[in-house]
């Protein structure tokens, strides 16, 4: 492909990303579905060899690109949430009850069940656990159509009334980081740090629990809160007018915040994904009604849009160039089992007895819409870099199949289901009296 043709394809694809959400509004077709299909068409065209879409050969590139997309999405998700989380308020923690249930019950159950399915299908413990952990978190990148639209700011700031969207959004913000301990467990088993040959390696598992499951989480959350508080103090309350960037609406602070929080946490050994989300939530809690939050959210949203565009096109190209050549019955069983049985069942169990106020239909929607996407690709790329013995073309085919199926399945159902049961307050009088919300542009890649 010549450089001129590359610009033409990129420009045409970007225009598609801009206009598709409106064009497809009344149809059960999502923008990610169309963009992946465009990528497939591009891949089938007479392009030259050498495109960096072969996963095992371009693992490091895939890891870093997907890493960037996820942290940008996590910053946007954290800024979008209106509901506060006050660390010292029991009432505030209870208001996040559905989120804690999805994180503490649904995700571990999903990992356990997928690991069991993988081992029954003939995988070793490390490979089965890695696949389960990589596919466990719901995706903050491709789930825009089932998440909150953006922050409510100005004089009409209100708590997000839609418990369904809030639960799916907050879960996506937190579970990307909380899947990491299980990814590390797979790496440690594969590299022999945790032995599986002579019974249970208690010392190895205790070390994993203390550092990977607890220590790195605490570091990530703590550093994220610290960075968020510091930047918020400077942006809103600095004694120097030149440093009060909120007054002049310098929204690139969002990029500075996510890069700083992520980089500092990774250097210190914590989980950077959790840190970015904690930083965004902490910054959002400062001057909560200020329009600056909406401006920062819009910047992250636009950057996420551009990055996601490229990834969806790359996925489509890779699909047409052999990414699923190693797909077999085990891949299909694991992928469909996760999307149609494991996630809905674990989510339903997690929300049993919940006092969130959601209807049975809304709880079912939370359980079902476990959208898989960019985060799964990142975890697989990262883990296979740390433990090359886990790197197989079959793993990539299985993850690609699961993501593609999720894009189609959830993309077709998201709009009609959310319109029927998830569009704001059930009480028309409440809806009519509610103050207007600031419109969000979240997701040119919004209809997944």
UniProtKB/TrEMBL annotation:
It comes from Nocardioides aromaticivorans. Its main location: membrane. It comes from the Bacteria. It is found in: Cell membrane. InterPro entries: Cation/H_exchanger_TM. Residues 15-419 form the Cation/H+ exchanger transmembrane domain. Pfam families: Na_H_Exchanger (PF00999). The chain crosses the membrane at residues 6-24, 31-48, 60-81, 102-135, 178-197, 209-232, 252-283, 329-352, 364-382, 394-413. It is a multi-pass membrane protein. Residues 423-448 are annotated as: Disordered. Keywords: Antiport, Ion transport, Membrane, Transmembrane, Transmembrane helix, Transport. This is Cation transporter.
């Amino acid at each position: 492909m010549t450089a001129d043709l590359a610009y033409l394809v990129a420009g045409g694809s970007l225009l598609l990303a801009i206009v598709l959400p409106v064009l497809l509004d009344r149809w059960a077709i999502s923008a990610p579905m169309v963009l992946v299909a465009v990528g497939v068409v591009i891949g089938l065209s007479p392009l030259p060899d050498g495109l960096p879409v072969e996963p095992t050969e371009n693992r490091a590139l895939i890891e870093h690109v997907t890493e960037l997309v996820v942290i940008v999405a996590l910053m946007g998700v954290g800024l979008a949430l209106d509901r506060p989380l006050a660390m010292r308020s029991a009432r505030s923690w209870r208001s996040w009850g559905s989120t804690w249930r999805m994180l503490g019950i649904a995700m571990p159950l999903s990992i356990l069940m997928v690991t069991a399915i993988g081992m029954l299908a003939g995988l070793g413990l490390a490979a089965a656990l890695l696949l389960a952990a990589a596919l466990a978190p719901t995706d903050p990148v491709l789930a825009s159509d089932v998440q909150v639209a953006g922050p409510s700011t100005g004089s009409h700031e209100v708590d997000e009334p839609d418990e369904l969207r809030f639960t799916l959004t907050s879960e996506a913000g937190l579970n990307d980081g909380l899947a990491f301990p299980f990814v590390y467990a797979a790496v440690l088993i594969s590299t022999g740090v945790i032995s599986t040959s002579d019974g249970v390696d208690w010392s190895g598992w205790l070390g994993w629990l203390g550092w990977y499951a607890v220590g790195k989480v605490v570091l990530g959350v703590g550093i994220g809160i610290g960075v968020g508080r510091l930047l918020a103090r400077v942006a809103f309350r600095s004694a120097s007018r030149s440093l009060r960037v909120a007054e002049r609406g310098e929204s690139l602070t969002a990029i500075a915040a996510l890069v700083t929080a992520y980089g500092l946490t990774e250097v210190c050994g914590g989980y950077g994904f959790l840190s970015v989300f904690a930083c965004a939530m902490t910054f959002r809690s400062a001057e909560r009604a200020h329009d600056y939050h909406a401006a920062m959210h819009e910047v992250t949203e636009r950057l996420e849009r551009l990055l996601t565009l490229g990834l969806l096109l790359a996925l489509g190209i890779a699909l047409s160039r052999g990414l699923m050549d190693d797909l077999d019955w085990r891949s299909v069983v694991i992928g469909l089992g996760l999307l149609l049985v494991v996630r809905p069942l674990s989510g339903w169990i997690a929300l049993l007895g919940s006092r969130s106020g959601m209807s049975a239909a809304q709880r079912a929607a939370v359980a079902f819409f476990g959208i898989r996407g960019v985060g799964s690709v990142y975890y697989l790329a990262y883990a296979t870099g740390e433990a090359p013995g886990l790197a197989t073309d079959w793993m990539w085919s299985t993850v690609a199949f699961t993501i593609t199926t999720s894009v189609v399945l959830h993309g077709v159902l998201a709009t009609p289901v959310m319109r029927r049961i998830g569009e704001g307050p059930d009480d028309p009088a409440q809806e009519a009296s509610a103050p207007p919300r600031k419109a969000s542009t979240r997701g040119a890649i919004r209809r997944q």
